[in-house]
């Protein structure tokens, strides 16, 4: 399976996936830390993928969404955005709605 | 030309009414995620061209204007993108 297929499988088989630097417990970047904190604040179970552990995923995820930065949030296989967009959606209450819909 | 001047020049295609760029690199120096060595920048941009476009589309327009700067010179970019009407 090539790396794009691996990513596709991860984001479609898990309802909420966050590609980040480090882990939710030990984030290695401020933007990733914010993204994980937002998901925690929403009370969401999510799958975290640490891109620092796999150089192919780190590069591949940028190509997958044609988005040059990390973190990246996916809900039900769909790219939602990076940390600035997550913050906006969180503050407007939209993120909670998206996450609640993904659970159902 | 400084990195900020270069960013400003690239973003001119979006005809920004306001463009504020801050270099936050010092705050992030040395952390593991920044091992590539690129800079951290913070950007507020106001442009008519964002009208009717969701945040993802606005960010993509910015990334596309920055081109290869996003693959190295800019390690991280925090973006606030508005239309004049949203201010």
From TrEMBL, chain A:
<dbReference type="InterPro" id="IPR036249">
    <property type="entry name" value="Thioredoxin-like_sf"/>
</dbReference>
<feature type="domain" description="Glutaredoxin">
    <location>
        <begin position="16"/>
        <end position="80"/>
    </location>
</feature>
<dbReference type="Pfam" id="PF00462">
    <property type="entry name" value="Glutaredoxin"/>
</dbReference>
<comment type="similarity">
    <text>Belongs to the glutaredoxin family. Monothiol subfamily.</text>
</comment>
<dbReference type="InterPro" id="IPR004480">
    <property type="entry name" value="Monothiol_GRX-rel"/>
</dbReference>
<dbReference type="InterPro" id="IPR033658">
    <property type="entry name" value="GRX_PICOT-like"/>
</dbReference>
<keyword id="KW-0411">Iron-sulfur</keyword>
<keyword id="KW-0676">Redox-active center</keyword>
<dbReference type="InterPro" id="IPR002109">
    <property type="entry name" value="Glutaredoxin"/>
</dbReference>
<keyword id="KW-0408">Iron</keyword>
<protein>
    <recommendedName>
        <fullName>Glutaredoxin</fullName>
    </recommendedName>
</protein>
<dbReference type="InterPro" id="IPR014434">
    <property type="entry name" value="Monothiol_GRX"/>
</dbReference>
<keyword id="KW-0001">2Fe-2S</keyword>
<keyword id="KW-0479">Metal-binding</keyword>
UniProtKB/TrEMBL annotation, chain B:
<dbReference type="InterPro" id="IPR002634">
    <property type="entry name" value="BolA"/>
</dbReference>
<comment type="similarity">
    <text>Belongs to the BolA/IbaG family.</text>
</comment>
<dbReference type="InterPro" id="IPR036065">
    <property type="entry name" value="BolA-like_sf"/>
</dbReference>
<protein>
    <submittedName>
        <fullName>BolA family transcriptional regulator</fullName>
    </submittedName>
</protein>
<dbReference type="Pfam" id="PF01722">
    <property type="entry name" value="BolA"/>
</dbReference>
